[in-house]
Every structure is written in C-alpha cells, then in structure tokens.
Amino acid sequence: MNAKAIVVTSGKGGVGKTTTTANVGAALAKQGEKVVVIDTDVGLRNLDVVMGLEGRVIYDLIDYFEGRCKLKQAVIRDKRVDKLHLIAASQTKDKSALSEERMRETIRLLLEEEGFDRVLIDSPAGIESGFQTAASAATGALVVVNPEVSSVRDADRIIGLLESREIDEVRLIINRMRPEMVRRGDMLEVDDVLEILGVKLIGIVPEDERILVSTNVGSPASLDDANKAGTEFRNIARRVRGEDVPYPSMEAETSGFLLGFRRLFGGR
User: Which CATH superfamily does the domain covering 5-264 fall into?
Assistant: First the structure.
C-alpha cells in the first residue's frame, strides 16, 4: 500500500479491529517502519490496554486537540519495539470532542515533521462522527470483517462510505476464519466474502485462542512467533509494505451461502 495514513475500521463492533490495529502496527514497527497507532474511540479506549501501555498514558489525543499538551507529549513509545508508538483516546470525553480538521493536521504533523513512516488510525465501530473523524485523515483503509452475515453486511456500508471519501486503497482483512466451519458449510468462504464486498484482500487471520491471551496480557501476538494469527498479522504488515506474500490455505466445500447473501445485498 502506498497510503501512509491508514484507518482501521469495521461496520460493527467486536470483529477484532483494535486487535488488528495493535498487531499490524507492531509488526510494521518490527519490520523497520516508524509507526504510530492512534485510538480515536473516545470514551471507550482500549488500544492502550491491548498494547500493554495503559500505565504510561499521561496525555491523550483530546488533551492535544484542546491544547493541554504538545503533540510529542501525547505520543508514547513502546519500550519493547523501539519504532512503535501510541496516541491514546480519552476515557472521559465524548466523540463531540473530535475534530476532522485537527485530525488531518495531526496526521500531517506526524508524517511530515515527526518523521513517522506510517500512521494507523483505530476507528470506532459504526458510521457516526468518530468514524468520520478517523476516516477524514486517511488515504488508505483496512476493513476488518468476520465471515458472518451481519459483519459482512455492515462492512459493505463502511466500504461505500470510504469510497465516497475517495479513499482509493481499501483492503479487506477477514478475521477469525475457521476452516472446519467453512468445510461444514457453517461459515462463509473467503471467495464469497470477496465477491460480495468487491475490494482487494490483504489478510486472512485464523481463529486463535492465543489472541485472547495476548490482549489480556497486553502483548501483541504479532511479536510472538508461536501462533498462527500472529504469523498472519506479520504477513499483513508485509503486504502493506508491498511484499508479495502467499495467503494461508482455506480450502473448503461450497457452502451454499452465497445466494442468500446476494439477496441481502440487493442481488449483487
């Protein structure tokens, strides 16, 4: 991807968007990029917890927006990965404190003056003002979707909004894939999701219970070589950087779901 400011988003909550932001950000930093991940889920911040940095947050994004600190003071460096940084969301404000203009200026400063190679913006779920602010500064997007009806349907709407903002580099991450469920016909196949949503794939992350463990202990799984999901998050980072990396095999029998999904999406 050519995009340097990438919004990580989803149509609904609970699909693994924040975990994806932490893991792809950590993997990019491990691969040599100077990266900052920004939590824009004001009032419900979790990115700092997933990354194990909650104890180091003094100033947050809204503190910077409202002039209580300088930008450098809101940026926290991860001591485990030298090139990984975080700007946390506020727990005490609401989404009305966000500003599209300030967000765009913040991203410009981070890339042009603070020397960051890549900014990942963790968007709130849904299509309200928080998403609009997060997307306003982005030139690329990673859309996280689970292979299930409601997630795919909501992702379709988000993709339309991203395209209306003329964000050209929209890539899809299918998260929590379970090949055995696909084989039984209980989960949508990768090809079906791609046909419905019509955007390019950049990652297929398998279901892995060690992801839950990693979020609970505040250590991104992409920093650990011993789990399947972490390996795929590292591969996603490599693809973001332009490498041609094979996708994991998710072979399955035809599920028979596609016709029903097409009805949901107006016969597309």
Answer: P-loop containing nucleotide triphosphate hydrolases (3.40.50.300)
